[in-house]
Amino acid sequence: MSLNQSILIQITLNLITMSKTKWQLEQEALENAFARRLLVEYNIKEVTTQRQAKNGTREFEFPVPCHPTYYKSKGNLRLAVFQSGSVRKQNGTYSPYQLNKQYKQNRRTTFLTENGLETNEYIGVARAHIWSQLARMQFMLEYYLKNYYYGKL
Length: 153
Known about the structure:
The chain has helices spanning 3-19, 22-42, 50-55, 133-147, and strands at residues 45-46, 58-65, 76-81, 87-89, 97-98, 102-113, 116-127. By secondary structure, the protein is α+β, with helices and mostly antiparallel strands. The protein contains 4 helices and 7 strands.
């Protein structure tokens, strides 16, 4: 590495450090290392656009078709991890399909009717959000290994 390159790297690191804490930088480094491991070990490519990166989303393309062989394939499987805590399957449907685990919860809604205010109670389905980016990426990898990966485990 030349002297100019090392100076440029140091300046870049100084600029990054001004806006982020040490913990955030360490987390980002762990996430990037995990993404590199996905590429090396499983041939999973990161295809995040600039806009997605700005929003805190990371999208990955997997080396398997998104549909089983009896459908006409529309490309490879793509999964994305969102800053909001969800993991979604990006292709195959009009709206991206959420993969997070489901749980049942009590819900209430209140309506204005002819008799006044009435509250309706029912059991609804909600999704469990995964708040750590690294945990979302691990969940995505486990989903792929369980449902699509037919190689050595």
